[in-house]
Amino acid sequence: MTAPAFLDVRNVSRHFGHFKALSDVTVSFAPNQLTAIIGPNGAGKSTFFNVLSGALTPTTGEIFFQGQNITGLAPHEYARRGIAKSFQITNVFKQLSVHENVRVAAQMRYSRFDILTPRHQLREAIDEANALLERVGLIQLRDKTVADLAHGQQRSLEIAMALAASPKLLLMDEPTAGMSPQETTAMMDLIVELAEERTVILVEHKMKLVMGICERLIVLHHGEFLAQGTPEDIRNNDEVRRVYLGQG
Ligand code: ADP
Ligand code: MG
Asked: Which ligand is nearest to the CA of 220?
């Protein structure tokens, strides 16, 4: 027996009615790697992301995380096992401050169902929120109301909140969407840093953006697995080129 992969996706499909957004995808992920899932618009990337994060149950197939079958578990079970996604703007309290949002996310870890947090844990959560805001470059904005942040700053806040759960696996769907070139560069730098300590799977439409930072790429096309390999492999893959040229 070989050791189980960190994350194992086996024959996973997701249908919407008769439409197959994802067809029989089998792929596995090693720990502490930065992998990008790429492909043209409509390739099934977000569907794959939603299946990995537990937001969508696969129509067929199974997902194993650290050797355990997690297929069909509730989203909070994914979170409890250490799988976090950064696109969680729905969990952000827009009228609270940047710091309060991250503090609440940090508190969730020890007191998920308790209204009262003991004083020492509150202190820890406050300190942790400060450290996370420092990490994502938002410490200067800690007392701002979230509603007053720029788009790119809100995306950074989502990452700080995702990190508050100390995830083993961090999933991101187009983290630089809508960002300025400066914000994009800063976000890419942050992602590289984050991937030094945990497994990161990044969904990205713009192939060029991830070529320089990822150890491995997986290419989807029409909901099917098309190719995987190093940036070098993918750059030299004729089928991948054709698919990307085809979209104009
Ligand atoms: P990508 O993120 O690569 O652009 P998506 O995973 O969002 O692709 O979508 C893949 C295909 O599945 C698209 O054709 C899209 O219209 C379809 N699709 C995605 N979500 C749904 C849904 N909830 N219902 C019906 N069709 C969907
Ligand atoms: Mg998408």
From this structure: 1
- pTM metric for this prediction: 0.91
Nearest by Cα to 36 from 215, 159, 176, 244: 215
Domains delineated in the chain: 1-82+169-176+198-248 (3.40.50.300), 89-166 (no CATH)
pLDDT reported for residue 248: 47
Q: Residue with the nearest Cα to atom 23 of ligand 1?
A: 16
Could you say which residues of the chain have pLDDT below 70? 1-2, 87-91, 110-117, 247-248
CB of 199 sitting under 6 A from ligand 1: no
Q: How far apart are CA 132 and CA 67, in angstroms?
A: 30
The strand order across the sheet containing 60-65 reads 19-29, 7-16, 60-65, 68-69
pLDDT attached to residue 107: 86
Q: Is the CB of 16 under 6 A from ligand 1?
A: yes
What pLDDT is recorded for position 108? 79
